[in-house]
Design goal:
The protein has 419 residues and is α/β, with parallel strands linked by helices. The chain has 14 helices and eight strands. It has two domains: 89 residues; 320 residues, Rossmann fold (3-Layer(aba) Sandwich). α1 packs parallel to α4, α5 packs parallel to α14 and α8 packs across α14. It is globular and about 75 Å long.
């Protein structure tokens, strides 16, 4: 039988629960074995929605107080924990404030102090510098005026996994830059409708043509089939760009987590006929890349992860087999092994507290690519940010949208100047 707990005991339990979420948002911990995913979920949701957590804890405290929970020692201990939790949540919210400065430092270091002036004045006037309060109050409200969405357009023959959505300006136009978004999900799950919506709607409002694509997932298919699918989507988007007001000459890619990994591979394997079966002649070059919290070395050459190695999971679920059996495919799947001088401009984004994809991997990749590439390579390490921090509206997400927009507008302006 369950114990006959009173309101004070239940309030203490709720306070411990809330304090645990607060600690997950504040502390960086990665070597947790099977507990790493629950820790990530708690830290992610709490860190990005800290003020909302204060609100629910305040309501819970008021309700328990009305029930007499604070009249006994257990409830009083719970109140003390809750007050400490509110302090921690406030600190978590404050820690998001330097995000804009972190992005700006990264862009200035890569593009120069005058990079904004290199964006045409008409486009520069549309840049958003603030964090919109309306978005922060409605974190899961994505639709925006002036944007229309065309859903489930077929780019291949594999049913829903070969479908993409287009985010377009409602107004007619032509010659608009293109963006392809690649969803994450550890290569085994995920949908095109679930990620990067703040960025897609914002860019479409500004006159971009944006696509979010599904691709076949493991273990049903093994690498490099995911990459081949996305190259097919990219070729489809480029071939039909003019039908939707887009310019096939400028196509950028972005994505988070597994999508960050795959979008990076798209940028580093242009026009590789072995990855374009049946469409070998299609132009699959991209003109800019913005990977979020990706994986850049399947082989973990620096031995960063130790007992948290992903090799077992990748061998069983994503790759055709272990590295020893398929060494060339494991190299192909590792962006760090594909560095090239003609890589497009990169903005690599990663959170300092990411517990799933480790920031050291992104640092190493960015440093290595910067030594090889003729184009700028910006690396933005976001203080306190967990994995997936840009999925819904938050302070960090808003700054990310603003910074990515500036980077892409700059890359587009530089491309126009060359052509």
């Amino acid at each position: 039988m369950l114990p006959d707990w009173n309101a004070s005991t239940w309030y203490l339990l709720a306070s411990v629960w809330g304090a645990g979420f607060t600690l997950a948002a504040l502390l960086r911990s990665r070597r947790l074995g099977a507990a790493v995913f629950p820790y990530f979920m708690a830290g992610w949701i709490t860190g990005e929605l800290a003020l909302f957590h204060i609100a629910w804890q305040l309501l819970a405290t008021a309700g328990f107080a009305a029930a007499g929970a604070l009249q006994e020692p257990a409830g009083q201990i719970g109140l003390g924990l809750t007050l400490l939790s509110w302090l921690g949540l406030w600190l978590a919210q404050r820690r998001a404030e330097p995000t804009g400065a972190a992005f700006e430092r990264a862009l200035v270091a890569a593009l120069g102090a005058d990079y904004r002036e290199q964006i045409p004045a008409a486009r520069r006037a549309l840049l958003r510098g603030q964090v919109p309060r309306r978005e922060l109050l409605r974190p899961f409200s994505m639709r925006r005026p002036g944007v229309r969405v065309l859903r489930n357009l077929a780019y291949g023959e594999a049913g829903i996994r070969h479908r993409l959505d287009l985010y377009l300006p409602e107004s007619e136009g032509a010659g608009r830059p293109l963006l392809l978004q690649v969803h994450g999900g550890a290569w085994v799950y995920g949908q095109k409708e679930q990620q990067a919506l703040p960025l897609l709607y914002h860019l479409a409002q500004r006159g971009w043509v944006c696509a979010a694509a599904n691709y076949r997932l493991s273990p049903g298919v093994r690498f490099p089939e995911h990459l081949i699918d996305l190259k097919r989507a990219l070729a489809w988007l480029r071939a039909r760009a003019a039908d939707y007001g887009g310019d096939p000459g400028f196509l950028a890619v972005t994505g988070g987590s597994a999508g960050g990994h795959l979008s990076t591979l798209l940028a580093l394997t242009p026009n590789d006929p072995s990855l374009q079966p049946g469409f070998e002649d299609a132009d699959t070059r991209v003109q800019a890349a913005v990977p979020f919290y990706g994986i850049y070395d399947f082989l973990d050459r620096a031995q960063l992860r130790g007992r948290q190695s992903m090799e077992g999971f990748l061998s069983k679920r994503v790759m055709p087999g272990p590295p020893a059996a398929h060494p060339k495919l494991w190299e192909l799947a590792s962006p760090i092994a594909l560095l090239r001088a003609d890589a497009p401009p990169f903005l690599v984004i990663h959170g300092s507290h990411d517990s799933l994809a480790w920031v050291e991997d992104a640092r190493s990749f960015s440093d290595a690519l910067r030594k090889v590439s003729r184009e700028p390579v910006a690396f933005a390490e976001i203080p306190g940010a967990q994995h997936a921090f840009d999925t819904f509206h938050s302070v960090r997400s808003a700054h990310a949208v603003n910074a990515v927009t500036r980077f892409l507008e700059h890359a587009h302006a530089q491309w126009i100047a060359r052509v």
